[in-house]
Amino acid sequence: MARPRIVVVGAGFAGLNALRRMERRIPKDAAELVLITPNDYMLYQPLLPQVASGLLTPQSIAVSLHRLLRRTKMVPGAAIGVDTKSRTVVARKISGETTYVPYDRLVLVPGSNTRVFDIPGLIQHGRGNKNLAEAVYLRDHVLAQLELANASDDPQEREERCTFLVVGGGYTGVETAASLELLCEEACKRYPRLRESISWHLIDIAPRLMPELGESLGDAAMNLLRQRGVQVSLGVSVKEATEDKVTLTDDRVLPCRTLIWTAGTSPSPLMEATGLATNKGKLVVGADLAVPGSPEILAAGDSAAVPDLSKDEEGALCPPTAQHAMRQGHLLADNVIASLLGQPLQEYRHKDLGLLVDLSGRDAVARPLGKEITGLPALGITRAYHLYALPSGPGRARVATNWAIRALLGGEVSRLGFLNRKIDTLVDPEETSQYLDQDQVRQQVEMARGAV
Ligand SMILES: Cc1cc2nc3c(=O)[nH]c(=O)nc-3n(C[C@H](O)[C@H](O)[C@H](O)COP(=O)(O)OP(=O)(O)OC[C@H]3O[C@@H](n4cnc5c(N)ncnc54)[C@H](O)[C@@H]3O)c2cc1C
Question: What PANTHER family has UniProt attached to this entry (predicted)?
Answer without folding.
Answer: NADH DEHYDROGENASE (PTHR43706), NADH DEHYDROGENASE-LIKE PROTEIN RV1812C (PTHR43706:SF45)
